[in-house]
Fold this sequence. Notes:
Elements: H1 7-22, H2 28-37, H3 48-56, H4 66-77, H5 81-89, H6 95-104, H7 106-116
Helix pairs in contact: 3-4, 4-6
Amino acid sequence: MEPARGPTEQNQYLFETFEAYCKPKHNVIMERYKFNSRIQQENESLDEFPTDLKKLAPMCEYNNLQQEMVRDRLVVEIRKPAVKERLLREPELPLKSAILIFTADQEPQKGLTLMKGPTMYNVQNRTK
Length: 128
């Protein structure tokens, strides 16, 4: 038998019980399917892909393997062969290092895009 509760404790207990009953069951298999099916999209930046993987991973209940699973998905799904090769050469590769290598490749490209920039023309009005 449960101990006597005050009105606010009783309401809280009823609310939590009702919420637990109504909450949909967590499907780990479905969450792992989503995580393992996640690939880097063609137009997706190198910052977005690891961030999305990190958001998906906790629902998979990988527990202490979560960081390694995210790292492995990065290595498997990266679209650039040179970066993938660089990641595969590292014998010890923590997630943080993998993300640094993964995103570092994007920085020179951003710089080139900025350097190219929009073309500007110098137009002078001449009066006769």
